[in-house]
Design goal:
The chain is mostly beta strands and 237 residues long. The strands form 3 sheets. A 7-stranded antiparallel β-sheet has the order 1-2-3-4-5-6-7, with no helix packed on it. Strands 8-15-10-13 form a 4-stranded antiparallel β-sheet, with no helix packed on it. A 4-stranded antiparallel β-sheet has the order 9-14-11-12, with no helix packed on it. The chain has 1 helix and 15 strands; from the N terminus they run αβββββββββββββββ. The N and C termini lie far apart (95 Å). It is elongated, with a radius of gyration of 34 Å.
Length: 237
């Protein structure tokens, strides 16, 4: 048998090792759960969805892509949905009725499906919640509504729409009697001799109409009390 140089055998063994490494790398599946130094691009009407582990529940936790209803003429509407793990909507970006209002709105929902926050589709500012501005009231207490009756007497009457679970109330009042606030005929918060200020549950369902009554009564015959509402704000619980 002819003599084979040792360095040639070493080179053949090295080539065999390189071929085995190449074959192994070709059959190795790359990691699918990490992207380093690159971008993910979904085009041509594709969607991105993250579903609950138990798909029978039908909870799609995250969805980005084509949504319904379509725009007039069948044009696709692209949107964004985030749901809680129980399936209830938490955040959406889409147009409910693109044939009537083509601009999309960002909305945040509570677990009962009420839209707590939405930007205005006109392009500027809020649509929800409704935030009233406090009405200016006279500085001269002589111009405040007054009563000398010793029974509760309504001095102010107002209407609103419930947007928050709690209410902040501030009613300036003079000495000589008590003041209180009624919401839909039921007292909310305490009554007070002098200025009334409190935070308490509103006691009305979300988005329902409410009537505020500011009442006062004198503490003794011949006395009088004057008051002026300064602030009624919906606040968080």
């Amino acid at each position: 048998m002819a003599a084979i140089p040792t360095d040639l055998l070493d080179r053949i063994r090295a080539l065999e090792r390189q071929v085995r490494a190449l074959m192994g790398s070709a059959n190795t599946r790359p990691a699918m759960d990490r992207i380093s130094g690159g971008n993910v691009v979904i085009s041509d009407g594709g969607q991105l969805a993250v579903r609950n582990r138990d798909e029978q529940k039908g909870a799609e936790l995250l969805y980005i892509g084509q949504v319904s209803p379509a725009r007039p003429g069948g044009e696709e509407q692209q949107g964004f949905f985030v749901r809680r793990d129980d399936g209830s909507k938490a955040l959406t970006v889409h147009a409910d009725a693109p044939d009537l209002q083509p601009n999309q709105s960002v909305k945040v929902f509570d677990r009962k499906g009420n839209a707590l926050f939405a930007d205005d589709t006109g392009g500027e500012g809020l649509a929800r919640p409704y935030i009233p501005y406090p009405l200016p009231t006279p500085e001269d207490t002589g111009h405040w509504e007054a009563t000398s009756a010793t029974e509760w007497t309504t001095l102010y009457n107002g209407n609103a729409i419930a947007q928050h679970p709690y209410l902040y109330c501030l009613i300036a009042a003079t000495q000589g009697g008590e003041v209180r606030l009624l919401v839909n005929g039921a007292q909310v918060g305490p009554s007070a001799a002098g200025t009334l200020e409190f935070t308490a549950p509103l006691g009305a369902p979300y988005d329902s109409p409410v009537t505020f009554l500011v009442q006062a009564r004198a503490t003794a015959p011949g006395a009088a009390v004057r008051c002026s509402p300064r602030a009624l704000y919906g606040v968080k619980s």
